[in-house]
Amino acid sequence: MELHGDTPARSIVLRPPGRPGFVIAPKEPRASLPAAPCQTCSVRRLCLPGSLDDRSQPIFDSLLIGRRRLQKGQKLYRAGEPFLFLYAVRLGTFKAGLPLNDGDEHVSAFHFPGDIMGFDGVADGRHRTTATALEAAEACAIPYAQLMEACAGSTELRKRVAQLMGTQLVREYRTTQLVARHLSEARVAGFLLLVSGWMRERGYSPREFHLRMSRAEIGSYLGTSLETVSRALSLFARRGFILVHSRRIELVDEPGLQAFEAGDHGLGRAFSAAPVVTA
Amino acid sequence: MELHGDTPARSIVLRPPGRPGFVIAPKEPRASLPAAPCQTCSVRRLCLPGSLDDRSQPIFDSLLIGRRRLQKGQKLYRAGEPFLFLYAVRLGTFKAGLPLNDGDEHVSAFHFPGDIMGFDGVADGRHRTTATALEAAEACAIPYAQLMEACAGSTELRKRVAQLMGTQLVREYRTTQLVARHLSEARVAGFLLLVSGWMRERGYSPREFHLRMSRAEIGSYLGTSLETVSRALSLFARRGFILVHSRRIELVDEPGLQAFEAGDHGLGRAFSAAPVVTA
DNA sequence: CGGATTATTGACTTGCGTCAACGGTGGTGG
DNA sequence: CCACCACCGTTGACGCAAGTCAATAATCCG
Lengths: 279, 279
What we know:
Two copies of one chain form a homodimer. By secondary structure, chain A is of the alpha+beta class. Chain A is 32% helix and 19% strand. Chain A contains seven helices and eleven strands. In chain A, strand 4 and strand 5 form a beta hairpin. In chain A, helix 2 crosses helix 3, helix 4 crosses helix 6 and helix 4 (184-201) packs across helix 7 (254-261). Chain A is globular and about 55 Å long. In chain A, 45% of the residues are buried. The interface between A and B is large, with 48 and 47 residues. The structure holds a DNA duplex.
């Protein structure tokens, strides 16, 4: 499950092994930022600034203390570390993993540009998940304490922060609902539709996209084995609902997938055009 | 799945069918409250007031606009309704259900005294879940807009609200992790331990408790059938890990359950005292 | 181009969902 | 207060879905 760890540490690490160039937690600042860093950001709409007005935006700008650039496999923070920063994903994809007793991790969420990561630390001041980059990525660090301070002065900002946490919570509800589905095909179909929606929200094609995560990570997220994920994808492809080229996915018949998600096996639906053999 | 609905409505209801005595959403006030209603509340610690100081508590007190008393099966709010209030559970148990396409619902959370319900509406101003009382219950209504206003003036309050949302989020992560476990016995064992923890937090006995929810509701929550839940409970009882009398549960061998949660089938563990026959 | 990682597919086995019947519990009304 | 009834929980039988093990194939690295 641990793929490209930048350190061999597996279990909960309260303080990451000291590697001077790569200190992770307490003092975050790295590359300094332009005066109004969000202005030119392509995912501004989705990110924390969202619809902040001209009064609130500068308040927020002053909080951004740096960006972090990560290679595939590097970690933004680890479960157990003190929670000091929220991170706005600027580029790339992340997974959030909840540690399991046996040293493995359960992938509990994926994060895309515009997402805010780190809310899992708000509860008690320690991160509960480990955030790992699935590809080259970039994230903006937002010091949480200062953000909360700034919330005193801006109704807009206050609303926005609450809204983002609420969104995370609802997303998680939906995830659980997906994982709770009985048939694994329904889970995989739902996952594809979920990813498609995330792509749409970000202005990418919802029909054709590149999965940044491995089958094993999808399986962990969905509560199935990686083989089952693979089989489900093959099945959908055979039925003509999708095209699969390794991690590149094209949705050909979205309603067909929706039928699968509903547990209909894609059979007997008016909109499922494929020949359909139960085999 | 719908057990004791107070109205026959099943799918998303934007405005509950008009029943003068039972209007649910927009104007909530009911029984008027004493001047400092939280002061004598037995679950104050866990609830929103938590550790609010003498300056912030009155601010919060002034927000509480009423309590609602519910019978078993009645609903606090429904998915799709406008989100105007958070609710603090004062008494009783609730389930939060996410509607499924087919009219059924997926139980996404259980709520106990001290819990704040309704955060699912923060994202976009509409409730995403339906909150149903599992027994006679009582909840305090907190107008969300006013709460957010009040947050401008109190750092304490701001922190507390964020903390509570964060706690909900982490809880949901844990739920998903539980549901994602492969073996259903691990899920049921984990559920019992979860409930035990909730009981402990509230000062009830963590060893002996009464499940307020049906096997079907547990099954929905865990993503298994009600029969499987029942079978798992019977198995644990046969192994001597628990005593089951319908909904009354006694944990006899907690480590044994933990082994099950870890997927060890309770076998070969030093602390599992039972005879253990694989049958 | 070569080695390592990741994905696919098959065969086997088991977990568990479904259907069905029975038994217990709790609530209601006579 | 007891009897009835509806609901809920338990248990068994059966068949399918999917987890596991294993071998091959494709892809991504350097």
